[in-house]
Amino acid sequence: xxxxxxxxxxxxxxxxxxxxxxxxxxxxxxxxxxxxxxxxxxxxxxxxxxxxxxxxxxxxxxxxxxxxxxxxxxxxxxxxxxxxxxxxxxxxxxxxxxxxxxxxxxxxxxxxxxxxxxxxxxxxxxxxxxxxxxxxxxxxxxxxxxxxxxxxxxxxxxxxxxxxxxxxxxxxxxxxxxxx
Length: 180
Known about the structure:
- By secondary structure, the chain is mostly helical.
- The protein has twelve helices and two strands, in the order αααααββααααααα.
- Helix 1 packs across helix 6, helix 3 packs across helix 7 and helix 7 runs antiparallel to helix 8.
- The longest helix has 17 residues.
């Protein structure tokens, strides 16, 4: 991992701990934004508001939170929502986020995208969410990544949208081969 400096990793751990202790909802928003960056989902604030059920771009506490501002780039006037560093995003997902939270926010994202799956943008989000190579980009250092992969694809398989989706089953089988 590129964060080999103990000082930097300690600071990022402290930032993450402060976000979690301040609000679980804020932490889930942050995790989803990080996943969006790592998986090229290109979720905007409106999408994240709907998925997490949080009106973050109107939430003054969220917008002014110094710890969130260390990680995310927030510009209310343009509804821009970005990540300061993909290296930090990967580190945070690997070290401070639980598999359960990642699975939960990505499952909710899939549920949300299914509603608009006729739109190419949301169809792409669904495709990227199930992509074995994209999910592998940040779980390679997870403890028990095999269990994560199994739970992740099992949870997604519960959505009727994926039950007849050949690409989903191909990605799931690739994950099974990798963890076998």
